[in-house]
Amino acid sequence: MDDINLSRRLLEQFLAVAREKHFGRAAERLGMSQPPLSQSVQRLERVVGVRLLDRGPGGVRLTAAGEVFAADARRLLDLQTAAVERARRVASGVEGDVRVGYVSLLSHLYLPTLLRTAAEHLPGLRVHLHHGSSQEVAEQVRTGALDLGFLRDPARLSGDLTGTVIATERIGAAVPDGHRLAGPDGIALAELRDEDFVLPDPAALPVLAEQLRLACRRAGFTPRGVAVADDLSGLFSYVAAGLCVSLLPEGLRHLAVPGVGFVPLQGPAGDLDTRVYAVHRPDADPAVVRLLDLIAALPPGATQGA
C-alpha cells in the first residue's frame, strides 16, 4: 500500500470521475490532462486497497466499494469545509463561547439587551453569565477566567485592563413610599440633610460611597448614616423597610422595588453621574470585540434592557 495521504485534491479528482463517469470529461472539468488524472485515481485505489472504478471503452462506472467510498468522500470534504468555515467564524468572533461577568442589579438593566443583541446578530455565539462583586469580576477578567465584565464605576482598574463606558446614569434619591419628599418633582439634595441614610460600604462600593460623600458635602451637609450595605440590593432593602433614604442610580427605578420611590435631584450633574463600564483585556478575543461593537452601535439609551 502506498504511503500517501487522502488529500482534498485527490478526493475531488476521484469524485469528478465518479460524477462524469468518464476520465476525459472529468479531466476537462478539473482543468488538467487525462493521464495525470488516471494516475491519481490508480494511486488512490492502491491506497484504499480495492478497485473503485470499472473501466470500459465507453467510460467508467463505480464498483460497489466505489459507491460507498464516493459517499464517504463527499461527507469528508463537506466536514473539511465546515471545519475551516467554523474556525474562521470563531476567529472572527461570530461563533464560540464568551464568559461575561456582572455585578448586582446590572443583570436586570443591561444584560437583557446584551443577550438579545447577541442572539440576533451573533446566533452562533454562546454567552455564559457569572455574578460577582466588582473586585471579583475585574480580577477574573484580568486573569482570563472571564472574557468581559460589566461594572458600575470601577474605582481602579489595573493597567492590563481596558474599560469602556456603555451607559451614564444620574444619581437620584431613593426614599420610602409615602415619604414627605416622594413625588415626580425634583428636589435639591440639601433637602435630605435631616434624613437618616443607608450608606454604601466604601470597601465594596468605593465610587458610589465617594460620590455620595462629595455630593452631600457640596450641598452643605454630612449624611447621617444609620446603616451600611455592601451592594445596591442592600441599600434598596433598607429604604424599602422605611428606615432611611439613600442615593442610587436612577436607572434602577425601572426595577419597581416595592416600598421604594425615586426622586430626581436638581442641579448640575458632576458628582451625581454614575457610569457602567464594559471591562476587558486589551488583547480581547474577537467575540468580545464583536459584542462591544454591537453595543456601541446601539442608539443612546438602548443599552438599558427592558
Give the arrangement of secondary structure elements.
Blueprint: H1 8-20, H2 23-30, H3 34-48, E1 53-56, E2 59-62, H4 64-92, E3 95-102, H5 106-109, H6 111-121, E4 124-131, H7 134-143, E5 148-152, E6 162-176, E7 196-200, H8 206-218, E8 224-229, H9 232-240, E9 246-249, E10 260-263, E11 273-280, H10 286-297
Parallel strand pairs: 3-4, 3-5, 7-8
Antiparallel strand pairs: 1-2, 5-11, 6-9, 6-10, 6-11
What features would you describe in this structure?
By secondary structure, the protein is an alpha/beta fold. It folds into three domains: 8-92, Orthogonal Bundle (Arc Repressor Mutant, subunit A), CATH 1.10.10.10; 96-166 and 278-297, 3-Layer(aba) Sandwich (D-Maltodextrin-Binding Protein, domain 2); 168-274, D-Maltodextrin-Binding Protein, domain 2 (3-Layer(aba) Sandwich), CATH 3.40.190.290. It contains ten helices and eleven strands. The chain has helices at 8-20, 23-30, 34-48, 64-92, 106-109, 111-121, 134-143, 206-218, 232-240, 286-297, and strands at residues 53-56, 59-62, 95-102, 124-131, 148-152, 162-176, 196-200, 224-229, 246-249, 260-263, 273-280. Helix 8 (206-218) links the parallel strand 7 and strand 8 (224-229). Helix 1 (8-20) crosses helix 2 (23-30) and helix 1 crosses helix 4. The radius of gyration is 32 Å and the shape is rod-shaped.
